[in-house]
Amino acid sequence: MDLSTEIGSLNLKNPLIAASGCFGYGVEYADVVDLASLGAVAVKGLFLTERLGHPPPRIIETPAGMLNAIGLQGVGVHRFIREYLPQLQNSGAVTIVNICGTTIEEYEELTRILSDVEGVAAIELNISCPNIKAGGITFGCNLAGTHDVVQAAKRATHLPVIPKLTPNVTDIASFARVAEEAGADAISLVNTFLAMSIDVETRRSRLANVVGGLSGPAIRPIAVRMVYECHQAVSIPIIGMGGITTANDVLEFMIAGASAVQVGTANFVDPYIWKKLMVGLNNYLEKHEIKRLRDIIGTLEVDLAEEA
Amino acid sequence: MVMELEARVESNVRLSDEYNVVTLEAPSIAANADPGQFVMVKLSDSQEPLLRRPFSIFEICRNSSGAPTGFSLLNKRIGIVTQQIFDLTDTKRVSVLGPLGRPFTAINKPTQAWLVAGGVGLAPFLMLSEKLRRQGVAVTLYYGARNANELFYINIFEQLGVNVVTATEDGSLGVQGVITVALNERLQKIETNEALMIYACGPTPMMQAVTNLATEYHLPIEVSLEQVMGCGLGGCYSCVVRIRDEQGQEHYTRSCVNGPVLPGEQIVWEAL
Q1: Which CATH architecture has domain B225-272?
Q2: A118 interfacial to chain B (CB closer than 8 Å)
């Protein structure tokens, strides 16, 4: 069975991508997963310099999900290139580097730096992290900001540029449209939903950062709807994510319009999930006598009833 | 080598209204585990609770020829998952991922090992005692709990040749008060030629107090921390501990891959 898919000029052997922020720098998982067997690995969001991140507690469980406020702790782009990228290259992983900045110039510089080294397959623009004060979501919640960041990154690279959209907006499809107009090769969605959880005994937030991002199965139906809306609005490929746990979940996103998917929270629960998802996808194709998985992308059947 | 397996529950022994010991059939994990390492546990495919939970490996179980067959978890009923583990039946299977984390640094004789345990913090010290005693190291266990009914398995430690010092808050067994009082009394009597390594596991204030004592007496100390964890493999950056490195720089380190055992003096205790 053919599980391969395309994200612009990027050919992936299957649609399963490890989600940024949920897979370290990839190398942490080299013992449990053959990184080359994944469609791609999206590494943890990188700034130009190292970042301390937020104090703990950084995660808390909620029904069928979790909140996180990690605060983009990270080694910075230069240490990543020195210490982690060579290991990723040796493993055969297709590496998507997720980047984050506080100004458009920082995004541009990060993109340029990563385009000058070997082993980077695509740039994912984190304009959607809900947990940091400056940067990221300031661009992702503003149509002009989204446009300018994408345009600046595109100017700086020959690599595919994939802005990662936030769901914390009224109309996500308008952001997809603006990203496409600015030259994005694809879009990925959704990042986490801004949320909070309170300990009523202490009347304190259960996260040190007070608010955090909700992920996991709890958000999946909203994420599927958003992928569907964006698929109707743009013609560039979509990488869908949000609470994927089973092969059926992958299929839901693809039928809604995603060309590939990212898996995050479920990988925490089961780091061996990738093989199970691949088996499930193959079984589906066999059962429905479909030769190529990509043939199901955006094939949602809709019978719209007339409004009364 | 990390593995995941669906372990059969061999037994669930209730030790008190709050404590129990669950034995799991998991030969491959048991054979590869070092003292201080942990496993990530999930009791069902249920999405609530969604995430795995970290547990210290308590005892390595062996068959009559000495081959590892599995391990046990020392559990205290506190939250949802610990309640589920308290209620486990031997018809259940438990998903275990491990062995994970940085183990204790094992010392050699003539250096002595002092193990300081508070409550359920006893868990990582049985494996450590076995290993150290095999190497001929003199081991003392300082073990504190609220009362005598919550001090478990003292005889197993004594059978290994471990010298056990106990303390209870109500004075029902051993020294009355917290275990650090007993530790401090003994520290005041150490000879200058006594080489010592201290290991601590228990409530954070206890581990901080033990670290302060170790620092005062210029003794090396390792503590085993329990942080909220997402993945156990270094992927999520949620289980971080603030540490101060040799240059005095502070940063957050992941307790799942760089711990759970960390040098006590590096930890910024006020931030824990």
Answers
A1: Ribbon (2.10)
A2: no
Please give the residue of chain B at the shortest CA–CA distance from A215.
Answer: B50
> Tell me: the pLDDT tens digits for A145-186?
999 999 999 999 999 999 999 999 999 999 999 999 999 999
Three-state secondary structure call for residue B230: coil
For residues A263-276, give the mean pLDDT.
97
Contacts with B4 from chain A: Cβ below 8 Å: 32, 270-272
Residue B192 has pLDDT above 80, yes or no: no
Interchain contact, B252 vs A217, CB within 8 Å: no
What domains does chain A contain, in order, with CATH numbers? Answer: 5-296 (3.20.20.70)
**Class for the domain spanning B103-223:** alpha beta
Bigger pLDDT: A132 or B81?
A: B81
10 Å CB burial of residue A115 (0-12, 13-18, 19+) is middle
- B227 → closest Cβ in A56, A63, A270: A56
Tell me which residues of chain A, numbers 264 to 303, contact chain B at a CB-CB cutoff of 8 Å.
265, 267-272
Same fold, B3-100 and B103-223: no
Give domain limits for chain B: 3-100, 103-223, 225-272
A141 in active site: no
| Interior/surface letters A174-201, b for 16+ CB within 10 angstroms, e for the rest | ebbbbbbebebbbbbbbbbbbbbeeeee
Residue A306 has pLDDT above 80, yes or no: no
